[in-house]
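Suppose a classmate hands you a notebook page containing two proteins, each written out with its sequence and a corresponding row of C-alpha cells. How would you begin to make sense of it? This section walks through that situation. The first entry is reproduced here exactly as it would appear on such a page.
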Amino acid sequence: AKSQTARLVLTLSTIPGAGVVAMAEIEVQKRIKALNKKLAQIEKLKEKSQLTAEEAEKVASEKRILNEIDALERGVAPEEAKPAPPPKAPEAAEAPQPQP
C-alpha cells in the first residue's frame, strides 16, 4: 500500500495541475464533512423547546447548508448555486430630489 501511495504522489507531481485538483477534492470533502456536522447539531437544536438567538440563527441556516452541500456534491461553486437575493425596495429618502 505504501508503494502505491508513493506512485500516486509521484504521478500527481508529474502531471501539471493534478495535485491542485486532488487538493481541491480533499478540501471539498472536508467542507462537506463540516457542513454535515453542522446539520447534526441543527437536528439536536430542533428538539429543544427554547432556543437562544444564536441557536435559532443556526437552525435558520439549515436550508443554506443543505444547498451548499448539494452544490459541492455536484461540483458547482456554492456561490453559483445560491439563489439571487431579493431586490431591495427603493427608499423615498434616498431618491434624488429635483434641483430648482
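The notebook's second entry, a different protein, reads as follows.
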Amino acid sequence: GGGGGGGAHGLRREIASFLESNPQAKISDTPVASWIKWDSGQPVASYCRRMARGGWGGGIELAGCSLLKRVHVHVWERDRRSSGVRRISCFECPGVPRAGRTLHVLYCGG
C-alpha cells in the first residue's frame, strides 16, 4: 500500500480503521484485540475511534502501520552520549524480506 494522501491525520485514520477491521491480526503472536485491551482497557472499536481522532500513538499503532503498509518500522532516539541515534524498537512485517522497505521514525519524547 502506497500513500493514500491526507498526511499524518489520514495515515492515523487508515491505521485505526485497519486495526478495527483486523482485531485478530497478530503482533508478536498476540491478537491486536488483546494488546488494545491490555493497553487501554477498552474494546477495539472504542479504542480505534478515539485513535482515529487524535492523541499519541504508540507501539500498537506502529505495529499496525507495519502490517497495513507491509513495511518494517524501526524507531530511533537520540543518543546523547555518542551524539548519534540508537534503535529502541523494531516492528517487522511478517513475509516482507529483511532487506524490504523500512520506515525509520525518530522518537523525540512525549
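A careful reader of the second entry would note: The longest helix spans residues 7-21.
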